[in-house]
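Glycine oxidase maturase GoxB
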Amino acid sequence: MGRRSEPDVTERPPVAVIGGGIAGAAACISLARAGCPPLWLAPPAEQQAQAFGESLGPGARPILKALGLEDLLTSSAHRPANASFSAWGSDRLTARHAALQAGPPGYVLDRLRFEADLRARAAALAERLPHRLSSAAGEDQVWRLHLSNGENCTASAVVDASGRAAVFARRHSPLIRRDRLIAAATLLRQHDLSVEPTRATLIEALPDGWLYAALLPDEALSLAYFTDPDLMPAGISRDPQVLAAVLKQSRHIARWIAEAGFVPERPPRLYSAGTTRIAAPVGRNGRLPPWMAVGDAAAAFDPLSSHGMTTALWGGWKAGEAMAAALSGDRSGLDAYAAALAEGIADFDRQQARFYAAETRFPNSRFWAARHPN
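C-alpha cells:
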C-alpha cells in the first residue's frame, strides 16, 4: 500500500490578503511564489497627492530581490537617496551622506509609481476583489469572510495587510498605542526655476514637534509637520497662513523653501503617524485557521525611523513562507515571524528613545516632555 499523499493545495480555499498597499501586494506575490494562491481583498487605491513616506532604506533591496522585484527600482521615476541633514538637539545642521555608509544607498521613490507597479505585479498573481472586509468567522478549518458588497467567501488563512486600521487583527488581539503622533503633510512646487534645489532630506526639531522635508525625484518638495493632536495648530488643513506660521519657527527648512522658491500646492492633509502594534501579530489559537498581520497592521513605527515601506515589504515577503508552512500543519514559521517582529520592535523602541532624548532645547514643551525618559 502506497503512502497517502498530501491534499493538493488547489483543493484548499485560497489565502485571503486584506489590504491593497505595499504589504498586501508583497504578501500576494510571496504567497503565489510559495504555492499558496492568494485571494486579494483590495479596494481601489484612493487618488491623492503624494506626501511623506517616500524613503526606502537599503534593507529593502534584498527583500525586493527575493520577491523577484528588484527591477522596480530601475525606473527613472526613482533616484538614490544621497544625503540627509538634521537639526536635532542643536541649532546646527549636520549632514550624513550615503557615500559614508557601507553597502548600497537607499532610494527616494515616486511613491505612487512604486505602489502602482507593485500592485500590477501582484494583480497578475492573485484573484483580486475590490471590496472591504465586513466580518470574519473561523469555522470548519476555514475563515468565512463577509465582504462589503454583501458577498461571502472562504479562506484557508488570512494575512491582514490593511494598514493602521488592522481590520482583521484587531478583532483577535488588542492594539497597543505608544503615542498619538499626527502629521500635516503637503507637496510644494518650485516657482523660481533659476535655483537648483538641494537633493536631500531634512529633519528639524521645533518647540512642539518636528518638520520633515525631502526633494522628490520629480523635483517637488514633500513637507510634513509632526506633533500631537492637541498641539496641531487649528486650521492647518484649511488656511495656508497656519502652515506659514509653523515654518517661521524653523531655521533651516524655512530657508531651503524660501531660497529655492517653493510654494505649497494645497493646504496640508492630516494623517495618523503614531507608533502602534498588535499585541499578538499571529493567530495562536490552534482551533482556528492561521492568520497573521503584516506591515502597519502589525506594527506602525514613528516616521522618524523610515522603516515603514521596508517593514511592509519584509512582512509581505515572510507571509508566503510562514503561511505555506502553517497550511501544512507547521505553525513554527508564524512563531518565527512574531519573534523577529518583536525583536525589531524592541530595537526600534531603543533607537526612538535615544533619538528623542537627544533633543533637550525645549524644556517647557509638552510634546518633548512626553517623549523624554522620566
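The first strand starts at residue 15 and ends at 18.
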